[in-house]
Structures are given as C-alpha cells and as structure tokens.
C-alpha cells in the first residue's frame, strides 16, 4: 500500500470486524451449548490429568505483540510479531520514498519466491494429512468418536450456522457479493483448511480464492495473514461449547458473569494464538482457568480435538475471507468517490 493512512484505516476496519465476529461466535457457542447441555454425555472425571498452559494477562498479550529484535519473530514463527515487524518495515520503505524502492522490489521478489516454495510443499499435504489423522483413531479406538458424537455434532451445527448467517450477511450487505458465489469461490480454501487444520497454512490458497472473487491484492495480502492470526471464530465457538460441556461433566453451572469472562478471555486469547493445528485446545486451558473450571477437563475432549479442529479451521479462514471481501469492497467504494 502506498499510503500510510490507508494502512491504518484498513487495519482498524479489519480489527473491528474480527473482534466483533469473534465475540459473537463465542457467545453463540455458549448459547447453543447451554441449550444442548441436557443431551451432553456425563463423562467420568476421576483420574483426569492435563498440563495447563500458562495463562497470559491482557498486558502481556499486548506487550508480546512487539518483537524484541528483528530476527526472533521469524525464528520462533511468531506470526503476530512478524506482522507488526512487516508493518513497521513497510512504513519505513514508504517514508524512505525513492531510496526505499529497492527494498520494496526485494520484498516483492522474496514474496514470489516464498509463495512458489509453499506451493511445492502443499503438493505433499494430502499424505501429511493422512498421517496426522491416523493416530487419533489408532490411539483412542473408533469408540472415542461415538461417546462425544453429540458434542461434536453441536460444534459442527454452530460452525455451519455461524458461517451461513454471519458471513452470508456480511458479504451480501457489506461485501456486495452473492453469498452462494462467495462460498463456491471459497471451496478450495475450505477443503484445504478442513484437511490441514491450519489457518496459516491455508493463507496462500485463501489469497488465491479471494483474489479470484475480486478482492484487491493489496487488501487481501494484509487482511488475510492478520486474520489467520487474530481472527478465530470457529475456535471461539469451540471454546464456548467445550467450556459448557466440561463444566457439566464436573457438575458446575456457569453463571452469567463467568460466561462474560469466557467471552472476553477467548476473544483476547485468540489474538495471541497462532492459526496452527491444535492451538485452540491450548487456548481452552486459559479460558477454563479464567473462570476456575478444572483444566484437567480438557482431557475429555483432547482425543477428538483434531475433529473439532478441522471444522473450526474452516470457519476461521472463511471469516478471514469474508472480512477481506468486505474491506476490499469498502475500499473500492471510497476510491470511486
Ligand atoms: N487450527 C486452528 C487454525 O489454524 C486453530 C485452532 O486450533 O483452533 O485456525
């Protein structure tokens, strides 16, 4: 983007969309799970053990966004820090004007090289996905899927409804695109997200799909990677459902204040959680801890986490794409004016 102000205005719109939809998603998950609670199985909670992830305070989340040096974010694959660094370097290139042109050309060329390298790796992904799914059934036996079927079904109903309602509405009203065209255009990215369970891994295909549907490259290449890191509607739904399910197994009824705490914690935790397989389950430890629910309860759903993960990743990346279509359309409108 050639204009610093534009980066700011697009960034703010994306953040509002991302936080709004994530908070809605978790509220929706809590609500539907509360309605379905009576049908959830009451699993045995004795002998459970699970290592809790350390919960991170709001201040730490904020501070952790900023890298301490130039190399660490890339070495540690910390996407959010990489994005922050990229924005600062991008501003630097703009401010350097002509003298920054070589750096910009180098970045563009490196971008092409990395995208081609990722395309090569993606060709191998079906084999990788098969290998990832095998241990779930091999370690737990097919019965594991049976006893949690109703919880899984509830999650998948919520995933479906959230995508069908929230994204159809936003792409239709704000993105000026027919929802059916949108979902059809998103099919390759959704299929890849389902099998890989990684929003970050799906970025290249998501870029391709949104650009084919008319999103500007400028907007998509900023909004999508940001969304892959901070926007997790599917993961938020999963947090809501699992909190209610685990609470009910331990005989706890969540109060309204606890539910509000869950909404806030999950929305904030999604900022610092990378869009990679299984990260939503680690986030769940923070959410449970925030309302004093036993973190060991995660062991109840850990065996089938991959199945939850496949669906929630589809919702995560579709939300990123919906936001891209909306912002690209709003941007085109302001340009015409
Ligand atoms: N796998 C999800 C993603 O990449 C994150 C999660 O575990 O919920 O978006």
Provide the descriptors you would attach to this structure in a database record.
single chain, 337 residues, mainly alpha, globular, binds aspartic acid
Radius of gyration: 20 Å
Give the overall silhouette: globular
Query: Biggest β-sheet, characterized?
Result: none
Point out poorly predicted stretches: none
Q: Write down how many β-strands occur, each being a DSSP E stretch of 2 or more residues.
A: 0
Terminal CA distance reads 19 Å
Mean pLDDT: 86
Structural class of the helix and strand makeup?
mainly alpha
SSE string, helices as H and strands as E: HHHHHHHHHHHHHHHH
Give me the number of helical elements.
16
Level of helix content? over 70%
Beta percentage is under 5%
Name the ligand types. Answer: aspartic acid
Could you describe the 3D structure shown?
With 337 residues, the chain is mainly alpha-helical. Helix content is 76%, strand content 0%. It has helices spanning 4-36, 58-64, 72-75, 79-95, 101-122, 125-140, 143-147, 149-173, 179-196, 199-212, 217-230, 233-249, 256-272, 279-290, 299-302, 305-336. The mean pLDDT is 86. Aspartic acid binds next to helix 14 and helix 16.
In short:
The protein is mainly alpha-helical and 337 residues long.
Task: Write the topology of this structure.
Elements: H1 4-36, H2 58-64, H3 72-75, H4 79-95, H5 101-122, H6 125-140, H7 143-147, H8 149-173, H9 179-196, H10 199-212, H11 217-230, H12 233-249, H13 256-272, H14 279-290, H15 299-302, H16 305-336
Helix pairs in contact: 1-8, 1-11, 1-12, 1-13, 1-16, 8-12, 8-16, 9-10, 9-16, 10-11, 10-16, 11-16, 12-13, 12-14, 12-16, 13-14
Aspartic acid binds next to helix 14 and helix 16.
């Amino acid at each position: 983007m050639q204009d610093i102000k534009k980066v700011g205005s697009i960034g703010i719109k994306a953040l509002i969309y991302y936080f709004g939809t994530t908070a809605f998603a978790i509220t929706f998950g809590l609500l539907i799970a509360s309605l379905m609670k009576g049908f959830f199985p009451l699993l045995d909670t004795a002998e459970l053990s699970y290592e809790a992830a350390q919960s991170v305070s709001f201040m730490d989340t904020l501070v952790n966004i900023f890298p301490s040096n130039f190399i660490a974010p890339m070495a540690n694959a910390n996407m959010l820090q990489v994005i922050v660094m990229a924005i600062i370097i991008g501003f630097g290139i703009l401010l350097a004007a002509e003298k920054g042109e070589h750096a910009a050309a180098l970045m563009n060329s490196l971008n092409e090289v990395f995208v081609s390298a990722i395309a090569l790796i993606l060709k191998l992904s079906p084999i990788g996905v098969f290998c990832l799914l095998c241990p779930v059934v091999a370690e737990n036996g097919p019965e594991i899927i049976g006893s949690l079927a109703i919880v899984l079904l509830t999650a998948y109903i919520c995933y479906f409804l959230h995508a069908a309602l929230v994204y159809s509405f936003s792409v239709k009203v704000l993105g000026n695109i027919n929802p059916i065209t949108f979902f059809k255009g998103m099919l390759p990215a959704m299929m890849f997200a389902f099998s890989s369970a990684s929003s970050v891994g799906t970025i290249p295909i998501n870029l391709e799909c949104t650009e084919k549907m008319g999103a500007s490259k400028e907007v998509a290449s900023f909004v999508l990677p940001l969304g892959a890191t901070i926007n997790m509607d599917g993961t938020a739904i999963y947090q809501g459902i699992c909190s209610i399910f685990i609470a009910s197994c331990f005989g706890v009824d969540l109060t309204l204040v606890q539910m509000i705490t869950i909404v806030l914690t999950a929305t904030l935790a999604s900022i610092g959680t990378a869009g990679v397989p299984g990260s939503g389950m680690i986030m769940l430890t923070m959410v449970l801890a925030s309302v004093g629910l036993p973190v060991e309860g995660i062991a109840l759903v850990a065996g089938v986490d991959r199945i939850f993960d496949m669906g929630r990743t589809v919702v995560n990346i579709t939300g990123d794409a919906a936001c891209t279509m909306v912002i690209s359309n709003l941007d085109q409108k302001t340009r015409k004016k």
